[in-house]
């Protein structure tokens, strides 16, 4: 069984499939037992056909399909549910995240120096290779989000993240939740660590998201997450009070 599942949501990224799969294999082969789970979010090009063709020579490769596009967060959740591994690494399907960074995140989360209570290792794009408009929009969104949620994460928009499957599925699910994962893990009482990672320019295809679209939906989502943060409670169960046959309350 794989120990790590690399979950990649995609929509109309046919030309990026083969190069990214090759990079993932080069980064992980011989290091970590892994699987690659692509989630096709209603593509209208031959993204699925490219994945199917590679499955003949890449036994680690799997694909799950959405009949119609449901968005990046829904695609990530579908991939995590389909994964067999207990650990999840997420990547954007456009090739801008570098799979060579995954072993570093893995070592941070599972090594002997892993911080107690660590829930999420998040990539931080120190040198973004995006347009000035994208960098400007992200800077505004990250600043507002960090101030209001106190998640202490400088770059929540980076698609490269690592976490445990069961802990992710315990989070409240909603559209665009992938932008708020640090706050949601903190809400569970867990720690979040940001790690500098490589970022590359998009060389093929085009982005499925616009700057204005992201900013507009983010403000509404931000209000909802603020409500979740205020309303969340974490019971602290006293071990001395536990006896055989006791039923413990489930954590949120």
From TrEMBL:
GO terms for molecular function: undecaprenyl-phosphate 4-deoxy-4-formamido-L-arabinose transferase activity. Residues 6-166 form the Glycosyltransferase 2-like domain. One of its GO terms (biological process) is lipopolysaccharide biosynthetic process. Keywords: Cell membrane, Glycosyltransferase, Lipopolysaccharide biosynthesis, Membrane, Transferase, Transmembrane, Transmembrane helix. InterPro entries: Glyco_trans_2-like, Glycosyltransferase_2, Nucleotide-diphossugar_trans. SUPFAM superfamilies: Nucleotide-diphospho-sugar transferases. GO terms for cellular component: plasma membrane. Signal peptide: none annotated. The keyword Transcription regulation does not apply. Pfam families: Glycos_transf_2 (PF00535). PANTHER family: UNDECAPRENYL-PHOSPHATE 4-DEOXY-4-FORMAMIDO-L-ARABINOSE TRANSFERASE (PTHR48090:SF3), UNDECAPRENYL-PHOSPHATE 4-DEOXY-4-FORMAMIDO-L-ARABINOSE TRANSFERASE-RELATED (PTHR48090). This is Dolichol-phosphate mannosyltransferase. The lineage of its organism: Bacteria, Pseudomonadati, Pseudomonadota, Alphaproteobacteria, Rhodospirillales.
